[in-house]
Amino acid sequence: MARTEPVDLAIVADVGLALDDLLESIRSLATTERLAAIRASRYDRLAALPERMRRAADADIRPNLGQNPMHPDDVALLTERASDRDAITIHENVSHDMARPYAPLQSVGVGEKMRLHAAGGSLGWGVGAAIGAKLGQPDRQVVLHIGDGSVMYSAAGFWTMARYRVPVLTVIWNNVNYQQVRFRFARYQGNMAQTDRYPTMFLGDPEIDFVKLAESQGISAAKATTADELESELEIGIAATREGRPYVIDARIRCIDAGAESTWHSQFSLADSRTRNV
Questions:
Q1: What angle do CA 22, 26, 9 make, to 5 degrees?
Q2: Local confidence pLDDT in tens for the 278 residues of the chain
Q3: How far, in whole angstroms, is CA 120 from its chain's centroid?
């Protein structure tokens, strides 16, 4: 016992019987008066914690604001401010989601935002999830945050939004890379990290025009490369959704973390391998 994790008290017993006895002991100790005393001793200290976290997060991201191209923190902060208090936000922008310092700045809870994301790291679910969220809660604003790589798994869903007038605001966090995948490769510190060459990660040459991609399926769209442009496009996009139309914003952001500056990609031309020009 305790060979892999330390324990305060090791018990050799039948699991079910031991838990029954343990729960009974806890109930006998956890009287109403004792629970009230414990709560009173901790409440004031814990009540101030969210505000301290918000101040710390604000201090962390402030140096990143106003850059060109935009830092991801600019997109996070501006979309948080612009969206409704009770918006449903779908997050498939995996390179900049869970670990970002802006998370404490988001208001999540009953009567406030509902924040949905995948736990397993899979790609391609965000567009469908946003449509489903709007179907389930048509009277709440739905904002889809999705990476440029993720869009390429599910872009056909834009046509569905247009055909059935599903008024979702989509913000594409476009860093021209599968950066989350590159970051995970870099953690192994293998040949890719040592040479700064990550096959199939760079999404340029040619760059994907997400505005045309959305417009070709019947959705109004625009590109934003600065915080001012994004702020303006968020106003336009939110107005469009209030009128019952979906809208897409291609937000061009800096690529950060491992291999961020790399544009290397495998050079191959099938055309050049031909023996006949057919």
A1: 50
A2: 778 888 898 889 999 999 999 999 888 888 888 888 888 888 888 888 878 887 888 888 888 888 888 998 899 889 989 999 999 999 988 666 544 555 555 666 677 888 888 777 678 899 999 999 999 999 999 999 999 988 999 999 999 999 999 999 999 999 888 777 777 778 888 888 888 888 878 888 899 999 999 999 999 999 999 999 999 999 999 999 999 999 999 999 988 877 777 888 888 999 999 999 99
A3: 13
Buried b (16+ CB within 10 A) or exposed e, 119-156: eeeebbbbbebbbebbeeeeeebbbbbbbbbbbebbbe
How does DSSP classify residue 222? E
Give the rounded distance of the alpha carbon of 4 from its chain centre. Answer: 34
CB 126 within 8 A of CB 106: no
Residue count of the chain, please give it.
278
Neighbouring C-beta atoms of residue 202, cutoff 10 Å: 21
Which amino acid is present at 217?
A: Q
Give Dmax (Cα) for the chain.
88
CA 99, distance to chain mean position in Å, is 9
Q: Give the Å distances, CA to CA, from 93 to 75, 83, 96, 153, 253.
A: 11, 17, 6, 13, 12
CATH topology of domain 67-252: Rossmann fold (3.40.50)
Q: Where are the domains of the chain?
A: 15-47, 67-252
**Which stretches of the chain are DSSP H helices?**
15-29, 32-47, 49-61, 72-82, 126-136, 148-154, 157-163, 179-186, 191-195, 210-215, 227-242
The end-to-end CA distance of the chain, in Å, is 71
